[in-house]
Amino acid sequence: MEKHAKYRRLIEYCQTLPALPTAVAHPCDQSSLKGAVEAAGMGLIAPVLVGPRARIEAIAAEHGIDISAFEIVDAPHSHASAAAAVQLVREGKAEALMKGSLHTDELMAEVIRRDTGLRSARRISHCFVMDVPAYDQALIITDAAVNIAPTLEEKVDILQNAIDLGHALGVDEVRVAILSATESVNPKIPSTVEAAALCKMVDRGQITGGLVDGPLALDNAIDIEATRIKHIESRVAGRANVLLVPDLEAGNMLAKSLSFLAGADSAGIVLGARVPIILTSRADSLTSRLASCAVAALVAKARREAGKVLG
Predict the structure, then answer these.
(1) Keywords of this protein's UniProt record, alphabetized (predicted)?
(2) Distances, alpha carbon 286 to alpha carbons 36, 175, 267, in Å
């Protein structure tokens, strides 16, 4: 399949929606400022730039980035930028947060602050939405960036966040593979036991909205021939569109393997807060940055329509 084809369709659809009011926290380098401005130019977001005004204006002048159309909320440093961006959301002036050139930890510390943050009843988690050229559908991987070693209880929310994201992206049938090293439940491999428990929680209606199976090894999750050889009967195996990983290390390696060895692009989104949070890296391509904004726009749209927090 043509590279970026899935992202291109996603971005084109989101251009038909109203631009998403977005507080951009500390866009004080070329890549973060240019990414926000280009997403605005394509009609994906309506950014409010939050950070040291003089520094933002200097970066724009140095790199020829036109920011004349955008409001700037002056904040003296990165910590203050994160706090001010979160406050804009709390005041209803933004429906999404976007990370600029500050550390992710700085932004998330303000998001999870108990009295002034953006907590919801859900555990906060991260999803990569991967456009893998060799795979016929977008692939959601969670959690590869926020929860280091999630407990079973935390995985319930991580799983539900990912299922809700799939629906927000317009996926007709969300099919989740809970990954481990094997498709057999083995008490010596805790992730297989947790996978089995999660599947039973789906059966009992504690997790809703998706088809879930696990444990599954990666080949059994995404390759029909592998499931045939191993005689795995499942509506998920071989055709998963969501991969729930055992821990952050496994997820990070999987996502980066797809990016650097399979030519995939990755859009990043944080869910479980009161609004979607767009996390981008300085190494991200323009396509990835735009796709992250488009994903956030769809999450915000689903949240408005459902009247509940999806992220």
Answers:
(1) Acyltransferase, Transferase
(2) 10, 29, 10
